[in-house]
Amino acid sequence: MKFNTEALYIEDAYLQSCTAEVLYVVPRGVVLDRTVFYSRGGGQPGDSGTLTRDGGEAVTVIDTCRSPDGGILHVIEEGHTLQTGDEVVATLDWARRYAHMRMHTALHVLSALIRHGVYGGRITANKSWLDFDMPDYPDLEELTARLNEEVEADRPVTCRWITRDELDAQPELVRTMNVEPPPLLFRIRLLEIEGLDLQPCGGTHVKSTAEIGHLAVLKIVNKGKRNRRIYLVFEEDYPAMAAEAELKSQEKLARREERSAQLTAELLEELEKLKDSEAAAPEQDEAAEDEGNGEDNPGAAGRSAAPGAAQNTDGNREREAE
Which of 60, 178, 203, 233 has the least C-beta neighbours within 10 A? Predict the structure, then answer.
């Protein structure tokens, strides 16, 4: 059976709650007929929040995703008492969702400034990243300054729709290298940052770049020969995030140095064993040579006397013949 959930966030990302009917229930989730909860995808996490039945206790939603039948599944803890047909109020964890909206729009600004293909990315409420197909490293401080120029420009952010044929006629709109809109999707939603960016996107966004707030490039990481991962954070979070990143970097360096010291110690131990083995080899050779010369070797002495014994025997025979 197919269930369709009306995704209210597609037309209005600022809706924070709605009433809805429970279409069906599974032990750890429910599908509603309509929702404000974003279903995770495109690097953006699924929303969290609560579902509250009239007169009942609020049930916590820990994630949101697409169910196999096509509906939007609200993932909840086991032990709930929700039933098919219940009317509930679906309420977002708005602080988390709004942070995702700011971050998602920020990544679009970043991808507009770095004119290279994008392998993929991820959004969280306080740190996000994109992987770019590029061999070089952009200047961190310069990129931060350019990002904040676009934030201060207060560019309008809007969405519009085009057909599949229109998208196919403009392949340059698709910036991601590994992901494209599904082939059977006949209406494509475009996100436009006025004068800066236009590309397909089904995520939630703020209405202007000013709403993003000031940003900082946390770090740029080498993820391959032509893969540079650029991390963004909100400026107010930068000191704590930078300190955390530095701590992790120092811990990683310490682990690497400890491992190097361990490998060196193991190598030196092997060399010492090899040295001792080589030193013992001449002594064994000398002992073998001494044995070959007959010293303290009765068998050898016996063998060396045998020819003389034969000669004496022959001599005796000659005397007997005389």
Answer: 178
Cα distances (angstroms) measured from residue 160 to each of 185, 189, 199, 280 = 15, 6, 10, 83
Residue 51 near residue 76 (C-beta atoms within 8 A): yes
Q: Are strands 157-163 and 87-92 parallel, antiparallel or unpaired?
A: unpaired
Burial class (CB in 10 A: 0-12, 13-18, 19+), 153: middle
Predicted confidence (pLDDT) at residue 142 exceeds the cutoff of 80: yes
pLDDT tens digits, 53-103:
987 889 999 999 998 888 999 999 878 889 999 999 999 999 999 999 999
Reference 46, options 61, 33, 64, 68; nearest CA is 64
Report pLDDT for 274: 84
